[in-house]
Structure formats: C-alpha cells, structure tokens
TrEMBL record:
UniProt cross-references to InterPro entries, sorted A to Z: Kazal_dom, MFS_trans_sf, OATP
Topology term for the membrane: Multi-pass membrane protein
Keyword match Transmembrane helix: yes
Cited PROSITE patterns: KAZAL_2
Name of the molecule in the record: Solute carrier organic anion transporter family member
Positions of the UniProt region annotated as Disordered: 1-38, 319-342, 680-709
Gene3D superfamilies documented for this protein: MFS general substrate transporter like domains
Domain of life according to the entry: Eukaryota
Cell location: Cell membrane
Length: 709
C-alpha cells in the first residue's frame, strides 16, 4: 500500500454524471432521469460491497501470481541453470518496478479513474504472468542427463563406465556450447527478468487505488470492516501460491511434449523438474478474469449511507489492522479536514509533478526526524528482510536439508507457515483492541513478541540432517571432482565431467554422482509390483563390487522436517504479533496530517531496504555453502550438492541476525516511549496542584488563568 495524495478525511468529490444517474431523479429537471445513453450504467456496479468483493479476489489472485515463483524457485534454478544469487535477484525485480512508480501513483491519487487504472494494472500483471511462461515454450525439451541429449533411451548406458577410447563421444555435450546457445540462455533469463519487472509495475495501482476507493465511498463505520475483510482474503494469496506450486511440481516439466516411451524419472529423483510454467498460466488466467469487473465500476459512486448491523462483532478482530493507513473518519468533524493545510498531503493536489518531486525529499527528511517512526520502520525492515528471505528460499532449504521433494515442501509451507502468519496478525489486532493498548503497551507487545520469536529460533540451529557422503566431493574444496580423488578403479573409465545421474551404495551410504564414477559397467532393472528399481553392477570403485541403487541416498532424518517447520511457523506467528501494534506506533508517532504519507514512506523503505536486497543476500549466503557446481559451457550453473551444516547455520543465522536487529529497535522504541510517558506524568503531576490551588484562590465566580508549566 502506498501513500494516497489527497486530503485525508475529505469526503467524496462532486458526483459526476455516472453517479448522478444512480442517485435518483432529483438531479434532473422534472424529476426524470436524463435520457443520455452515457448516463445509463448497471446499478450493480454502483455498490461498494461488490467492489470490496472484486478487489479481494483480485488481490488474492495478484499475490498468488507474485508468490508462485517463490514456490518453484529451486525448479527454475535446475531448469535454466541458475545460482541462488541469480534467482534471488530475479525475485527482487518484482519490487523494482513497483518501487519506481509507487510515488507517482500516490501523486495522481483520485485524479484518475481508479477502477479502470486497477483494471489496466491487473491486465499487465496477467500479461507478465504469461510472459513468465514463454521461456518454457522457446527452450528445447529438458534433458535430465546432458551426456546423451540426442538419444533419451540411452540415458543410463551413457552414464556407465566405458573404456577411455570412448572419451571423444563423452564430450559432445560441450560441443553444443556455441555463441547461439549462450545467447539463447541469456535471452531466456532476460525474458524472466522483464516479466518480473512488469509484474511489479502492474501491481502498483491495485492496492493503493483500491483501498482509497473503498475509504472514499464506504460508510465511515463500515470502512474498517471492509478493509479488514480485504486484508484477510488477500493474506491467503501466498498460501494458495504454494499450494498451487505443490500440485504443479508433481507434473513433469515437458508434460506438453513428452518424449516417445516416456521418461524414467520419478518425483524423488534429484534431476526431476516439475511443470513450473503451468502454475503461471493458471494464476495469470485468474488475474485476467478478476480484472474484468473494474472496467464497469464508475469513477465515483454515491457514499454508502447505512451502517452494517453486525459490524461491531467483526470489528473486534478487524478494526485495528484495517486502520493502519488512516484515522477513523467517524471521529472527525467536517471542519477538521479544512484546517490541515500544512502537510504535503494537502498541498500536493496543487503541485505539478516536477514540484512534487522537488518537495518530496524535504518532507521525507522531516518525517524521518520522528525517532519512534524511524525506529519502528527500521524494525519492520528487519522483519521484512527475514520474511522475504524465508518466503523465497524456505522451500529450497527444506528440499536440501531434509531430502524431500519440492512438491512436499510447498505443501507443508502452504498448510503450516502461512496460516500461522494470518493467526499472528489477527491475534495482534485482537490484543491491541481488547487490552486498549496505548503507545507504551504497543511497544511492550512488539518487544515481547520478538523476544519469544528469537527464543524459539534457537533450536532451529540444531534440527537438520548431516550432509550426504559424496565420493570425490565431500572432502574436496574445489567445485569439480578430479580423477585423482578416485583410485585406480577409474583409470579405465572416461567419466563425463558434467554428468549427473546419482547412485547410492546402500551398504556404506556413499553417493556417486554417476554410475561411471562408481566404476559400474552394467545395468539391471528389477520389476516390482508398483515400480521398477534400477541397479548398477560390476562397480569397481564400490567395496566388494556390490551393486548400487539408482538415485540419491535416502535421508535418515527426513521426519524432522515437520517439527522444524512447526517451530518456524510458531516463530512467524509470534513475529506477526507486532504487525498491528507497530502500525499503531507509526500512526501515533507522526502528526495527524502526515499519517497517510508516513505509511507510504514506510512501505517505500520496506521495499527498498528489505524486499529488494533480502532475496539476493539470502541467495548469496546459500551459494557459499555449495560443494559441487554443475558446469554449463564452462560456467557455474546450478548447485548439485550443499554442505548441509553450513547451509543450516548460515540460512538460520541470517534469519537470527534480522530478528535480533528487530528486537534492538523495539527495545529502543519502548525505552523512548517510557521516557516520554514519564515526562508527561511529571508535567501532569506538577500542573495539577497549581490548577487546584488557583481554583481555590480565585473562587467560584472567577475563571482560572493559564497554568501551563
């Protein structure tokens, strides 16, 4: 949500002719409505309740398409050979377009036809979602074993230990590394970056214009309820995105162009790539359908006249979060808004775009001079950095740390983590409402929630799985295993340097990156009732020549993923307790006329300092734990193996660092609030006796003089 430029608390403007057509016949002479066909509008679209419903569905679909990439980030990395740093940068580009235009959207405010602008933005979001799928259709089919890109049935045979005379046949995959191949790879990645940027640009007008439209034309008492419903429905969007990702990643990536004879992969194979692009098609279609009604809503509609009867019951939960961007209009007299002429919010309608840009930095610095506002925003920057990194890379972390599938990781996150976030926000709002918390109480609640969150984060450092023992990699610091790490058993083999077809020795739980690296020269398929199991035999590098199983070694502690995620969800709920009270601190820490602008500045800082850099920071930290990189045309591509202990310590440690920063900021906020409260009580105690004494001396017929200290 960005700042809305326009008089805060001001009522709707003079109705246009669209509105007059729905206000009755008193606006036309003779009591008859104007026969002008342009004035004829469907009455159903002049209902603010329908707008709330449509906007809830649109924001739900928008957050679903924005969050879907996070649910399939590891799949996109494997499909296009991206590092975690690059994929984090890709996620951040969603915020680049959004941040670049949010100030201008705030400037235009209610000057434009807001519903239509929302519709245009939603159409752009849908087109950006379709553009995200384009790399799938212009790329060649996925080759899960690049040692045999031309003949899929020979996948397993190409990974076997063959005589060194066959070495030239092994290197044909590098022969495909032409300038055309590299250009095509850069084009595919560039298309995704452009799509992510457009996704952010299209989302710019949706939330600010929708919230201001509801605020302008809903009844003063109903507006908090409508905004609470809007936020509650919107928060389900990321959860649905991860649920959609769980379903789509169970399907093979090339489901639309399966090779003859099918594929020999299972969903548990580390080379499996799911149909990541299919989710973007579904989400883009949902956004496009949700955008249609906005082209029929009027620029302005009659102010809602009736208060909902059941609103008081619902407001107990939704009132506090819904008021984060405004004061309650019902508590303002008509004359109050006319007196607020000293803020940028009031003078902006009279400024040109150039003048607005010139005056904005000065007002920004003036707003940042409030210590409470600055510290609360810094604490929210820390929390948002933690949330952005967790939302982007938690699925990949669970996959690598506990050896589970991407589909299962998304299912767990969608069912546990995001519902806990919603519960935390709602409980925080209820506590603020029920306990009637003032600034000191809000600061204490924020600090308590973050301290508990920090406490429950400590066990996460110790819940995880050890790294698999990978032959030739586990005890090597370089990225690529060399033949010298394997004894004379490999001398007769010509193993491909870029091959990846992992096998496992069940007796020693040692994993080899290909059957060739295990010295295996033959392959056996054993058919079972439900599936067939592939074994490789005559393995010269395996103890006693035991056969090895196709696929990575199973993890012995995959069951720990559920308690790990339960602790993560509990910490998320405790951190989200601070959502509503921190907004209350921001709204009460600045001047009344600057509240709307302060909320806009807050969201701008969250995007610039948290949502944009955090995925890149987390991705870079994850890359430092990689022990074996896949090579594509001589460059580092996707990481095949990580050091699990380093991955856990650095990922959780980065989260712990941001949580500690938030605790420090909230502690300073509470200290300042207590000091201010103490000073206020001291002044009050000094002034009260003076007033009482003056009343006694002056007598009942005299008015007390000014007794300000």
């Amino acid at each position: 949500m960005g700042p809305r430029i326009g008089p805060a608390g001001e009522g709707p403007q003079v109705p246009d002719k669209e509105t007059k057509a729905m206000m009755g016949t008193e606006n036309t002479p003779g009591g008859k409505a104007s026969p002008d066909p342009q004035d004829v509008r469907p009455s159903v679209f002049h209902n603010i309740k329908l707008f709330v419903l449509c906007h809830s569905l649109l924001q739900l679909a928008q957050l679903m398409i924005s969050g879907y990439l996070k649910s399939s980030i590891s799949t996109v990395e494997k499909r296009f050979g991206l590092s975690s740093q690059t994929s984090g940068l890709l996620v951040s580009f969603n915020e680049v377009g959004n941040t670049a235009l949010i100030v201008f959207v705030s400037y235009f405010g209610s000057r434009v036809h807001r519903p239509r602008m929302i519709g245009y933005g939603a159409i752009l979001v849908a087109l950006a979602g379709l553009l995200m799928t384009l790399p799938h259709f212009i790329s060649e089919p996925y080759r899960y074993d690049n040692t045999s890109p031309e003949d899929m049935p020979q996948d397993f045979k190409a990974s076997l230990c063959l005589p060194t005379t066959s070495a030239p046949a092994r290197t044909h995959s590098n022969g495909n590394c032409s300038s055309y191949t590299e250009t095509r790879h850069l084009s595919v990645v560039g298309i995704m970056f452009v799509a992510q940027t457009l996704l952010g640009v299209g989302g710019v007008p949706i939330q600010p214009f929708g919230i201001s439209y509801i605020d302008d034309f809903a009844h003063n008492s109903n507006s908090p309820l409508y905004l609470g419903i809007l936020f509650a429905v919107t928060m389900m969007g990321p959860g649905l995105a991860f649920g959609l990702g769980s379903l789509m990643l169970r399907l093979y990536v090339d489901i639309n162009q399966m090779p003859e004879g099918g594929i020999s992969l299972t969903i548990k194979d580390p080379r499996w790539v799911g149909a990541w692009w299919l989710g973007f098609l579904i989400a883009a279609g949902s956004v496009a359908l949700a955008a249609i009604p906005y082209f029929f809503f009027p620029k302005e509609m009659p102010k809602e006249k009736h208060e909902l009867q059941f609103r008081r019951k619902v407001l107990a939960v939704t009132d506090s979060p819904a008021r984060k961007g405004k004061d309650s209009p019902s508590k303002q007299s008509p004359g109050e808004s006319t007196k607020k002429q000293d803020g940028l919010v009031q003078i902006a309608p009279n400024l040109t775009v150039i003048q607005f840009i010139k005056v904005f930095p000065r007002v920004l610095l003036q707003t940042l001079r409030h210590p409470i506002f600055l510290l609360v925003v810094l604490s929210q920057v820390c929390l948002s950095s933690m949330a952005a990194g967790m939302a982007t890379f938690l699925p990949k972390f669970l996959e690598r740390q506990f050896s589970i599938t991407a589909s299962y990781a998304n299912l767990l996150i969608g069912c546990l983590s995001f519902p806990s976030v919603i519960v935390g926000i709602v409980v925080g709002g209820v506590l603020v409402k029920r306990l009637h918390l003032g600034p000191v109480g809000c600061g204490a609640l924020c600090l308590l929630g973050m301290l508990l969150c920090l406490f429950f984060s400590l066990p996460l450092f110790f819940i995880g799985c050890p790294s698999h023992q990978i032959a030739g990699i586990t005890h090597q610091t370089s990225a690529q295993p060399g033949p010298e790490l394997f004894p004379s058993c490999m001398e007769v083999c010509s193993c491909p340097s870029d091959g990846f077809n992992p096998v496992c020795d069940p007796s020693t739980r040692v994993e080899y990156i290909t059957p060739c690296h295990a010295g295996c020269s033959s392959r056996v398929v054993q058919d079972a009732l439900d599936k067939s199991q592939v074994f490789y035999t005559n393995c010269s590098c395996v103890a006693e020549g035991n056969p090895v199983m196709a696929g990575s070694c199973d993890s012995t502690c995959s069951h720990l993923v559920v308690p790990f995620l339960l602790l993560v969800s509990l910490g998320s709920a405790l951190a989200c307790l601070t959502h509503t009270p921190s907004f209350m601190l921001i709204l009460r820490g600045v001047k009344k006329e600057d509240k709307t602008l302060a909320v806009g500045i807050q969201f701008m800082f969250l995007r610039i300092l948290a949502w944009m850099p955090s995925p890149v920071i987390h991705g870079s930290a994850i890359d430092t734990t990689c022990v074996h990189w896949a090579l594509s045309c001589g460059r580092r591509a996707v990481c095949r193996y990580y050091n699990n202990d380093l991955l856990r310590n650095r990922f959780i440690g980065l989260q712990f660092f941001f949580k500690t920063g938030s605790v420090i900021c909230f502690a300073l906020v509470l200290a300042i609030l207590r000091q201010q409260d103490k000073e206020a009580r001291t002044k009050e105690s000094r002034s009260s006796p003076a007033v009482e004494q003056q009343l006694l001396v002056s007598g009942p017929g005299k008015k007390p003089e000014d007794s300000r200290v």
